[in-house]
């Protein structure tokens, strides 16, 4: 059975269609600037033998055209979908209903046991990074897919393995060419996924292992385009560095950030020239001004995120930045499971 939540903006009455599910509540709040829901509840799994850690989450991808966002569940690989409605007013007051539900099952569905970063292209196709799905805890190829592509109705288009071994696909962004580009948290590599004449293919697009040393922990993670759309900005969380990957050549060069502390950099969101960097376990959100070509970034501010959350990735959708509360700080996760618009709450 699909797990569903209906959550109204606090300008309306908050409800849930899945009342009684373990670890969930009907609480919600309104975003002060937009009059939209600022908290979106995600249905989690009960803690049992199949889910000893409860539910933990990580990735989020936004479909601006259709007002949808997708969230990945690390524990099991389920995909959840939420809706942010277009603004509408009644007597000059903005109202709307936010909705989330389990969109795709996990626990082996299409070979998916965990899921990480997500991106959505202009056709509504959803690209999902599998993290260690293809290597498991032992870091050895187990024959499972490393990534998946679905159409907007949830039909599987591709389940692919990357070339090479020990690949941990972390995050994904859509390039100007319409292809999807995935980061690797184990090595300084980017993989390109696109549909060609002979179907969906994945290939190693950029190998920067000669320039970016593999360090302990998570290496390449968050990814976004530069303002001029001629390169990618990629976060290296364990060192706190940002890297520029040129689209023409795939060459990686360090972005000059003036010594800004960006350790634990995870999700990246670009709005114009403003780059938001979510620093997960550091519990900070950094804002930088990025040059058009992505070669320089100036720190504007750092602000503390909620001490009770570990925020991972984020995405902009219809004027809001939505942040995923991962529950990574809890050995056994408990609800409420949430996507939030205010990282300080």
Automatic annotation (TrEMBL):
Report the protein name in the record: SMP-30/Gluconolactonase/LRE-like region domain-containing protein
Q: Which organism is it from?
A: Nocardioides humi
Q: Which SUPFAM superfamilies match?
A: Calcium-dependent phosphotriesterase
Database matches in InterPro entries: 6-blade_b-propeller_TolB-like, SGL
Q: Where is the SMP-30/Gluconolactonase/LRE-like region domain?
A: 58-254
Q: Does the keyword Signal apply?
A: yes
Record keywords: Signal
Q: Which residues form the signal peptide?
A: 1-29
The superkingdom listed in its UniProt entry is: Bacteria
High-level lineage: Bacteria, Bacillati, Actinomycetota, Actinomycetes, Propionibacteriales
Q: Could you confirm whether the keyword Mitochondrion appears in this record?
A: no
């Amino acid at each position: 059975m699909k797990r569903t939540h209906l959550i109204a903006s606090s300008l309306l009455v908050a409800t849930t269609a899945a009342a009684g599910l373990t670890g969930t509540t009907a609480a919600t709040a309104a975003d002060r600037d937009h009059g939209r829901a600022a908290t979106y509840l995600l249905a989690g799994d009960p803690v049992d033998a199949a889910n000893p850690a409860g539910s933990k989450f990580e990735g989020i991808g936004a479909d601006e055209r259709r007002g949808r966002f997708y969230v990945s569940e690390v524990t099991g690989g389920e995909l959840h979908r939420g809706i942010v409605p277009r603004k509408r007013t009644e007597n000059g007051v903005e109202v709307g209903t936010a909705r989330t539900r389990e969109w795709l099952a996990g626990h082996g569905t299409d070979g998916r046991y965990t899921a990480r970063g997500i991106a959505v292209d202009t056709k509504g196709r959803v690209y999902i990074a599998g993290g260690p799905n293809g290597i498991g805890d032992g870091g050895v190829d187990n024959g499972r897919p490393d990534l998946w592509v679905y159409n907007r109705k949830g039909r599987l288009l591709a389940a692919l393995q990357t070339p090479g071994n020990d690949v941990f696909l972390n995050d994904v962004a859509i390039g100007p060419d319409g292809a999807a580009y995935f980061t690797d948290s184990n090595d300084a590599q980017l993989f390109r996924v696109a549909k060609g004449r002979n179907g969906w293919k994945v290939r190693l697009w950029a190998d920067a292992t000669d320039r970016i040393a593999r360090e302990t922990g998570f290496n390449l993670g968050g990814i976004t385009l530069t303002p001029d759309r001629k390169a990618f900005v990629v976060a290296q969380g364990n060192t706190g560095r940002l890297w520029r990957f040129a689209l023409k050549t795939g060459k990686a060069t360090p972005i000059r950030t003036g010594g800004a502390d960006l350790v634990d950099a995870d999700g990246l969101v670009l709005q114009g020239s403003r780059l938001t960097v979510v620093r997960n376990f550091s519990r900070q959100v950094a804002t930088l001004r990025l040059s058009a070509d992505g070669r320089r970034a100036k720190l504007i501010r750092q602000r503390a995120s909620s001490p009770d959350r570990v925020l991972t990735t984020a995405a902009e959708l219809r004027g809001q930045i939505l942040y995923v509360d991962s529950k990574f700080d809890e050995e056994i996760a408990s609800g409420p499971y949430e996507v939030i618009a205010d990282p300080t709450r």
